[in-house]
Amino acid sequence: MIFRLLGPLTLTGAAGAPIAAAGGPKVRALLARLLLDAGRTVPVDRLVDGLYGEEPPAGTQGALQAQVSRLRRVLPPGVAVEFSPAGYRLTVGDPAADVDALRFETLAGEGARAGAAGDPVRAAGLLREALGLWRGPALSDVRDAPFVAGQAARLEGLRLDAVEEWAAAELATGGDLSFLMRELERSAREHPLRERLRGLHMRALGAAGRQAEALGVYEEVRAALAEELGADPSPELSAVHLELLRGGAGTALPVPPLIKAPPPVPLPSPLTEFVGRERERERLASLVTAARLVTLVGPGGAGKTRLALEVGAGLPGEVRFVDLGAVAGTGSVRASVAGPGEVTEAFAAALGVRGGGDEVRLVTALAGRPVLLVVDNCEHVVDETAVLVRRLLVACPGLRVLATSREALGITGESLLPLGALTPGAAEELFVRRAAAVRPGFTGHARVAELCAGLDGLPLAVELAAARLRSLSVDELADGLGERLERFELLSRGDRTAPERHRTLRAVVEWSWSLLEPGERELAARFSVFRGGATPEAVARVCGAGTGPLASLVEKSLLEARDGRYRMLETIRAYAAGQLADEAPVAAAHHTYYRELAEAADPELRGSAQLEWLARLDAEDANLRAALRGGGPEDGLRLVAALTPYWWLRGLRGRVAAPVAELLDRVVPTAELGEEYALCVLAAGLREGEHVERAGGFLASRTTPLRQPYTAFLWSTSVGPVEGLRLGDDLWSRSLALVGRAVLTTATADDGEDVRAAAEALLTEALAGFRALGDRWGTATALEGLAALSPDPLPLLAEALDLFSSLGVAEDVVDLLHRRATVHDTAGDPAAAASDRTRAADTARRAGLPPR
Asked: How far apart are CA 33 and CA 139, in angstroms?
């Protein structure tokens, strides 16, 4: 028995013979809805919503039962609709094989994975089979049912993805170009602004020797994008156009940038199944498809983040995640205001924009790039976020934003989707499923409905309650909640100007907090000092706790453990911070731990473990920046000095300028810490003024070797050289001094063979030192200097580019690409020069650097 949804709803027997249509419109819609979840129980309220929408008829339960009875009468033998307290379930032999929509998703997914694994032959076959299941628009004869729009849009998006993956595989295997071009042309007519599809069409035409037609397609797309969106073609489509202009083969891939676009800040992967928001999920998916700004609004704990992630993960195209939860300072939601630029920095981090975030860089990185930003926890900084989002939407036509907040952003054109409590049935289902995970065999209890009602039907509250079934019974939970119902009512119906988190979710968190042992409460309060989570070692040092108490907090859903780190939900962290009786000692311990970590990393960043330690510091970036505010001014200066190599190598100087500037305001400079003070001045982005003059004076009067080997290099390149600075006697410092002497030799002496030979000898010795240490930055710097003196600079520049690329230093990569382009021009190779300049422009755009 085969059920076909990819077109009109039809049933066919094993031999392919059609079976009589199943009943009237409502019966067919019910069958289609159950088929989309074949083999799984669909709750009654979801079926009602799917069939009747927002205005169900009176007596919906009876109406649904009547439709189910009619459906049972027309179903063929071997297919049944089963009922349980959780809802209705359609049983078929093998849903993944017997329902064409489910089979399509399976085949398309396997085909895409085969293509990604480098097996285009298998990919083409699987995707061809998947696309062959389509007989027309999905669910075309049940379009009046409310659930259809969202499901049809989802399936159509998957079909287009499959068409593109199939076309790419066919091009890679040299398939039938005539058929391929016809299919691509047909799909392109239906989706004229889908750039990957149009690019594949251009490739197919080019492979068939029809370059003129392929170039015509590009001009058509370019004009359509300009007229419809006010945008230029993407870099990927422009790269295909450039290949065609050069006469490149249709199967060739665009030249990738030396620094690829940083991977998206991944959408957090939930550890539990999605329950209770099917209707909102379909509605939100439709809204996000139709509108450029959609905001999920509702009280804390309503599941806004989870719903946004669920929808974002199911949409085609590039999706990035911006978490604003850690932007606001310690304490209650409005206890502090984000510092200047912190919201912009969060956007920059999500988009992979290096060197600090500002609006110009963000616009540069987003220009001509279709992307959906899921912006979470806007309520912390709603005013700043609204201003930034509006400016980005106006400047970047390909951008869409899905925001979560407790209040609207208040921007013209914003579409709102309020998210409140779960329906009683959904809340009970959520409780039962989560409870069964901690108490196997749990199927329900007479007081579950009472318990969920007392929790306001908020998903987070329900989940926290269900987690307590590890040690309490449902009766104990309900009785304990009943003792606090008055507090719930007061917080729900109190001051309307109070933060919503304090009107509803605060009561949930307080109740969960009250179930902790005193030691657990103290640990949870201390843990709130961390940003972005912490390793077990960090928790032990800062909070004085081992893995046992941490495991207890994980079990009680106050912490989550993943990838070797412990994390606390921001909602709980904000409450926990308010329970910390004396923050100063914990903040000081936090500062000490991360200063010592930075000091341990400092020498490792000049050796063979450079990449390993850079990754380790990347994971602690939020904690390192928070530590700047946790210690005394002198300790803050030492932390800045230790972090200077990390910020330099990762291009993060702009991102830390604001907290470092705050530190400068607290510092009373002394000659003893004059070097650290100078590095702080540089990190704050100052190049002139009182701080710069005072710091320069400290450096000029210094008589002992520098403690931070980077100081002389950074000060001389940012402000100017200081006479008499002494570097250390270690190999790295000696090698850097050799580079400096080589630069000075070529800058102050007349150009000649002797001068060039002397400089080359110095750089060669420096290169040997950096290679011996395994320092990529130093090696690349020496290679760059040697390339300027060599009659054959290309191999030296290529190695330097590879090293800078591995570090992610976009500015240096862009500079070297332009230098190599100049070499290619001199050598009479304009094509190679143009290629390097194109790659440089793409690298700069992706890193948010200004164009050159």
From this structure: 10
